[in-house]
Amino acid sequence: MKKIVLLSGATAILTALSIPAFAQTEIATGANVTGVSGVDDNITDIEDAVEDDFDRSADADRFGPSDRRQGLFGNMSLAYTGRTGNVENQDFALAGRIQHNRAPFAQSIGLSIEFGEDDAGNKDKEEVAVIYDAQYYFNDRFYAFALGRFKIDGLVDGLDNADENLRDTEEDDDLRRDGFLGFGPGYRVINTDTTTWRVQAGLGVRYTLTGAQHLNNEGSETELGYIASSRVYHRFNDMIFITNDTDLLSSDEGGEVLANEFGVNFKMSDQLATRISYTTEYQSERAIRTDNTLGVAVVYGF
Questions:
Q1: Rounded Cα distance, 119 and 178, in Å
Q2: What are the strands, taking DSSP E only, across 103-211?
Q3: With contact defined as beta carbons under 8 Å apart, do 149 and 176 qualify?
Q4: Which segment of 20-24, 106-110, 298-302 scores lowest on mean pLDDT?
Q5: Any signal peptide, and if so, which residues (predicted)?
Q6: Cis peptide bond prior to 104, omega within 30° of 0
Q7: Which helix (H) or strand (E) holds 97?
Q8: What helix, strand, coil percent values describe the chain, rounded to 5?
Q9: Does the pLDDT of residue 25 top 70, yes or no?
Q10: What is the pLDDT of residues 49-70, one digit of tens each?
Q11: Residue 19's pLDDT band (cuts 50, 70, 90)
């Protein structure tokens, strides 16, 4: 996929080469006040979403850890916005990811913290989340994996966010704390230059605390579950490749969740690329158990 960037002047070139890089506040003089910058940001968001879709479909882990960057590396981002005048609010966000790869072991940990206030000065977001991913390769085909996630939503407390003397029954089933840890073996059934297929399965433990449980000082719930995944990649030629991703999560209380995404990727030329995907998600505990999604992404550069 080609990216064409126009840089004007030595200052712009040095800015592009600096790390970390920051987006400019406006694309042209007067763009902010006229709303041009806002529309340009939306265009960038759409472009980033499409590029992320293509990057995920290529399955960076399909050939194992041999091409991974070694050592310790990561990034951290912080954003704060405070507003006064017609509205009085503020937003804070902190996010980061640290990775450490040293063959045959690769692991990463991610953190996100978000706090916000609405126009009345009341909290409208208070979330902290942590994720963990690790893989240990015994050989080119056999490996062990671990997946972890923990999230806290401080606004889910069973009380009305605007008036803490009132109860909010709509938060009774919302999750104040939600954690998951899964681990098990994985195996690369096929691992060639054109076709890869890996499967993995294991045990998972889920920890939850609802708003009602928190308000009533009740205990949390811990449940044993099972996870299984399959990743298939096949390249027909330099122009076309397909992927099929399947994931299953099962537990007594939560039931079964099954998701499958089939994708076809076309590279028509250096300027044109297309991805068509079809996703099916099944949840046994829903009234309408199956959702289907058709996705089409096209990138054209000139």
A1: 28
A2: 105-117, 123-137, 142-153, 175-191, 195-210
A3: no
A4: 20-24
A5: 1-23
A6: yes
A7: strand 89-102
A8: 15, 55, 30
A9: no
A10: 888 877 777 776 766 666 678 8
A11: very low
Beta carbons of 9 and 16 less than 8 angstroms apart: no
By three-state DSSP, how is residue 165 classified?
A: coil
Question: Distance between CA atoms of 80 and 93, rounded to whole angstroms?
Answer: 6
- Please, are residues 130 and 176 in contact by the beta-carbon 8 Å criterion? no
Does residue 121 have a pLDDT over 80? no
pLDDT (average), residues 179-197: 92
User: Are 227 and 202 spatial neighbours (Cβ–Cβ below 8 Å)?
Assistant: yes
Give the separation between CA 190 and CA 82, rounded to whole angstroms: 53
Which range has the top average pLDDT, 80-89, 203-212, 218-227, 276-285? 276-285
Residue with tokens 């099972």: 226
What is the DSSP-derived secondary structure letter of residue 211? H
Residue 168 pLDDT greater than 70, yes or no: no
Amino acid identity of 273? A
Which residues are CB-contacts of 219 (< 8 A; sequence separation ≥ 6)? 213
pLDDT at 216 over 50: yes
Report the alpha-carbon distance of residue 99 to residue 3 in Å, rounded: 27
